[in-house]
Write a structure and sequence with these properties.
Layout (H helix, E strand, L loop, with lengths): L11 E3 L3 E6 L2 E12 L2 E4 L10 E6 L10 E11 L2 E6 L5 H7 L8 H15 L7 H5 L3 H25 L9 H33 L3
Antiparallel strand pairs: 1-3, 2-3, 2-5, 3-4, 4-7, 5-6, 6-7
Helix pairs in contact: 4-5
Length: 208
């Protein structure tokens, strides 16, 4: 059966899989795949290997662990501002491709939870460690998005309370303070990360 149009070797779909670049049996980089096709992959990395270098890429499925990684031999054929392009030695089988990539717009609960885990893992570190390899954006991009959405989240959290203040029951001050903390935590721990992750995904797609 012929591959569907979106799975042609010359085309790639936007993804966010974690990838290990291996050269001479040694892992030289942990990166994120920007897009993936049957014939190659664009990786969010610079100077991992010079153009022309043979290598192996180990691609982790979005909804699976390392034991299900897809290992593919290839060669670095381009390096620019978008990252490095690895051309596979032989085209992926359609089944292998679909094993590591979900259809556009579809994400498993496990993949969503993994994205939130990576986000909080990066944001908890002082220097945003592993930002590029886990989230596929630079530290500068992360900070710019984070502070912008943080400011917006505060405003969006306050506005509903302000407009509905007349209808808020007269709870004791202690209860009001507790509810305010809970309300704020829901916005900053759920809304902001969700918006940030959506923006990061959009930013990765722009590099295609």
């Amino acid at each position: 059966m012929a591959a569907s149009p979106e799975l042609r070797a010359s085309q790639r779909l936007p993804v966010g899989n974690r990838v290990k670049i291996i050269s001479n049996g040694r892992i030289v980089a942990y990166v994120v795949a920007v897009n993936l096709g049957l014939g190659g992959v664009l990786l969010k990395a610079q100077s991992a290997l010079p153009v022309g270098s043979p290598c192996k890429v180990s691609i982790q499925p979005l909804d699976g662990g390392p034991e299900r990684d897809l290992s593919v031999d290839g060669r670095v054929i381009r390096e620019d501002g978008a990252g490095i392009v690895v051309q596979f030695a032989s085209s992926l089988a359609k089944e292998s491709f679909e094993a590591v990539v979900h259809p556009a717009g579809v994400s498993s609960p496990r993949a969503i939870l993994a994205a939130y885990r990576d986000y909080f893992q990066v944001s908890r570190t002082a220097d945003l460690e592993n930002c590029e390899s886990l989230l596929g954006v630079t530290k500068a991009q992360f900070r710019r998005v984070f502070y912008s959405t943080f400011s917006g989240s505060i405003v969006l959290a306050i506005l509903p309370v302000w407009f509905l203040r007349a209808s808020i029951p007269a709870y004791p001050n202690g209860v009001k303070i507790l509810l305010a903390f809970v309300y704020g935590a829901l916005w900053l721990m759920l809304l902001q990360p969700t918006v940030d992750l959506a923006i990061f995904r959009w930013m990765r797609r722009r590099t295609i």
